[in-house]
Structure formats: structure tokens, C-alpha cells
Amino acid sequence: MQKIKKVIELFEWFCQNIIWLVMLCCVGFVAVLNLLYRSKVAYVWTEDVSIERTSITALVLAVLIFVVFLIAGSKIQKIDEKILFIVFTVIYIIAGIYWIANVSTELRMDAYSAHNGSVLMRQHDFSFLNPGQDIYLNEHQLSFVTYEYLIGFISTDVRFLYAVNLLQIIGINFVIWKLTDRCFGQNHKTNLYVTLFSFLFLPQFFFLAFAYGIIPGLFFILLAFLFLDKSLESGNWKHMILCVIFVMLAVILKGNNIIGSITIAILCFLRILKEKKWRLILLAVLVMVVSVLPGKAFHAWYNKETGGVLCGGKPKILWIAMGTEPYYNNAAGWYNGCSDWLFSEAGYDPEKATELGKAKIRDNIYIFRHNPDTAYEFFSEKLESMWCDPMYESLWSGPLPDAGAENKTEFFNELYSGKSIEPQIALAMKGFVIMLFVLATIFVADRRNRKYDCNYIFLFFTGGFLLHIIWEAKSQYVYPYVFILLPCCAKEMALLSEKIHFPGKHQRTQEK
After folding, report:
1. What sections of 123-157 are H helices per DSSP?
2. 3 state SS of 51
3. Are 451 and 223 spatial neighbours (Cβ–Cβ below 8 Å)?
């Protein structure tokens, strides 16, 4: 038994070190990318992506922002965490109300399709599911149609969706604060820093005018992580059930949150190596089951309501085929219509489309294998375009005048056109994001920080990084993985501020 125990302990040690090593490679790589490059998405209807070198101004700004936060460390210690959170929440609510009252409710692309579907469904009209329609092709959107349909019992106004987003954004910041508090043992300075970082991460606030699944999805997956942590600590069944429910909601609203489900399953497995408790096995199984079954249930119910017209939607492999398409007009791996073309070529038959997708991927791999320069150029550009956009398409996803949106004020029309103060905001966010990635890299590289259980952060980030090497590219998609780093960034900033002491007024007087 002792030998078996030692083998298990060695295996667990190995797994923990692999997680740390992979995380260090991924976050360090992204930090270097941001130090070198900056990507932009033009404020036009299509995703017009450009990549340039990170400006000296942005690098200097990153240093200045870091120094300001470092100096602030000795000043903010006396601030009450709750007061700080409440003050920022009030600011967000005031700004959010002004934003919601003045931006256009004109939706487009997936957000439009989902909202239109929910409105039609209230009239018992399922024409939005006819063959060739957007949701017919992208059946995963049915989950968000259902979400909007339920919200519609209160109001079908798009502004109400924006208001719900605003509340969930504040909720995200609250949950990340509580996760940080639990992760680092109620460290007051770290909690203050994470509150500052979360509210100053402006792309998240800008997403309030994007009526789709990215904000509610992140809100629920963070809640799932919070109740997972509580469940592992207390063994309380209520916490475990809430974890499962929030995982289900997160995946329903944003399919990529299955990375969070896998994260939770892996964490349960690692804990099983220490604690032989069957409830951990049950939890791991349940989170994976609820990540898959709701989609099948939605398909079955809607298929029944429409008389069996649904085909199942585009197979997931088509997004990989598109995300690895070597030849492109816009940016590497970004949407180019390849998945739609393959699905149409297959006559909207998922099985035939899957085979076409596999054949396309084999062709892509063949091209990369025989043209190493093409492979290097493709994946370099893809990663740079996704991870180096400091705005994460947060404003681009909203009401663009170029797409026909008519905002109520000139300020918002200019902001959503990339004018007004948008360039200054983007520059400030570039400096801020560079600082965050560097702090996260230092945190992971410092072996002394291994006493903290940050595996849910590491697994979620690395899962997102690895998935989007082959998946369709969008800088919007990677924002949740950047935001999840904030606890580590806050802890590292707190540690650095404790090491560097700035002389106070009394001390300077004595020195004179």
C-alpha cells in the first residue's frame, strides 16, 4: 500500500508540474507577443484585421501604469474592500445607464439572429429555423435564443438585455474578487488590486452593448469555479449542485465554456488522488454530462416544434477546418465563410459535412507540412491577431455606425467608429494589458507561488490558448481567458509592492 501511495503522490506531483509548465509557456508566450505586437479590428462591418509593432508609447505607458500601481500599494492599504467595490459599482451603474440610454439597439450577425429568433418564437413563429437560415446552420445558437426568450417574459427590449449584461459585468467583478479572496487567503492588498484591475479592464464594460453569450457565459463559469472551490473545501452538497447548475448555464450560453467543464473535471480528478471520495467522481461526471445533454435537448424540442426540419447544424469540425485554412484574404484563421461553404456543399448533411471537414483539415495539414514557412506565417499571424488586440473587439461587437447603427449622440457615433477617444482608450488598454501579462508570467514563474491553488486559472487559460490555435480566430473569444488571469496579476502586484518600500512623508522629513 505504501508503494501505491508513493506512486500516486508522484503522479500527482507530475501532473501539478505539467500544469505549471504548460501555463508558464502559454502565458509567457502571450506576454512576449503583446510586448512585440498590437492588432486592430477596424470599425467596419467586416472583421478587417491589421497587425503592427507595439509602439514605444504603449511600452512606456505599461511601465508608468505599473509604477503607479506599485506606488499605490502603500497608499491603498487602509481602504475598505467593500467600499472600493461599491464606489466602482456606482460609477459603472451611472456610466452604464448613460450608455444604455444613448447607444443604438441595432443588432447584427449572431446577436441579431438570436434576438430575432426569440421575438418570433414569442409569436409562435419558427420561420427563423427554416433551412438556410442562420440558426438552422448554427444550431448552437438555440441555447441563446431560449435565454432571450425567457428574459423576454420581463422585456423584449434590447436595452433590457444591455442592462442584464451590465448587472452580470458587475457580478463578474464581484465573483473574481471572491475567488481571489479564497485563493490567496483573504489577502487585503491583493483583493484591493483585483478590484481595481477588474473595473479598469474597460473592454469588459464595453461588452455591455453586445447582446450575446460572452458576458453571461463568463459570469456563470466563474460562479461555477467559486462553488467548486467551496464544495472541495466543505463537501457541501448544495455547493456541488450549484457548481453543476452554473457549469450547465455557462456552456449553454457560450459553447467554448466547455473548457471550464473540462477544467473542473480535471480538478476533481487531481483531488481524487488525495481524497478517495466518490462525490468527486460524481461531480466530474455531472459537469461533463450537463455540458452535452442540454444541446441535445434543445435540438429535440425545437425539432419537434418545427416538424422535424432541423439538421443538427454545422459540425464543430468545420470551425477547425476554417481555423486552419492556410490561404485567407483577411487574417489567418478568422471567419472566411469556409465552414458555411463546406456545410452547403454537403447539402446540410452533418455526416457528409464532417467528412468534408476532415478532408479539408488533412489538406491543410499537408500544405503546412510541405510549406513550413506558410505554417509559421499562418500561426504567427493568427496568434498575434487574437491575443494582441487590447480592445478584444468589445466596441466592434456593439452598434457600429458603419453597419447602420444610429446612436443618439455624436460621442457614441464617433467612439463606435474608432474616432473620438477610442485611440487613446486602446492605447491605455494596451499598456494595461501588457502589464497584466507580464505580472501573470512573473507569478507563474516564481516557484514560491506554487503553494497557492490556482489550477482552475491555469487550466482555463491554457485550455483556451490551445483550443484557439486550431479553432476559428477572434480576439473577442480570448477575452475571458485574459480576465481569468487577474487574481494572479493582483497577487504578484501585491507581492512586488511589499518588496519595494517608498519613503513616506515622515521618513523623508527625518532623512533631511
Report:
1. 134-137, 142-151
2. strand
3. no
pTM over 0.90: yes
The cell numbers describing 487, all together, are: 487574481
Please give the helix or strand (H or E) that residue 52 lies within, else none: strand 49-53
Distance, in Å, from the CA atom of 92 to the CA atom of 218, rounded to the nearest integer, reads 18
Q: Which three cell numbers stand for residue 364?
A: 491543410
Instruction: In whole angstroms, give the CA distance from residue 217 to residue 479.
Output: 12
Q: What is the pLDDT along the chain (512 residues), one digit of tens a residue?
A: 677 778 777 888 888 889 999 999 999 999 999 999 999 999 998 889 999 999 999 999 999 999 999 988 878 888 999 999 999 999 999 999 999 999 999 898 889 999 999 999 988 888 888 888 888 888 888 999 999 999 999 999 999 999 999 999 999 999 999 999 999 988 899 999 999 999 999 999 999 999 999 999 999 999 999 999 999 888 888 999 999 999 999 999 998 999 999 999 999 998 888 777 788 899 999 999 999 888 888 888 888 888 878 888 899 999 999 999 998 777 899 998 888 889 989 988 899 999 999 999 999 999 999 999 999 999 999 999 999 999 999 999 999 999 888 899 999 999 999 988 999 999 999 999 999 999 999 999 987 777 778 899 999 999 999 999 999 999 999 999 999 999 999 999 999 988 876 554 444 333 33
CA separation for the pair 234, 228 (Å, rounded): 10
DSSP letter for 239, please. H
Exposure of 220 in the CB half-sphere (CA atoms within 13 A): 24
38 membership: H or E segment, kind and range: strand 37-41
Nearest CA to 64 out of 430, 335, 310, 317 is that of: 430
Contacts of 301 (CB under 8 A, 6+ apart): none
The pairs formed by 366-369 with CB atoms below 8 angstroms and a separation of 24 or more are 367/326, 368/324, 368/326
- DSSP letters along 345-368, please? HTTT-HHHHHHHHHHHHHHHHHHH
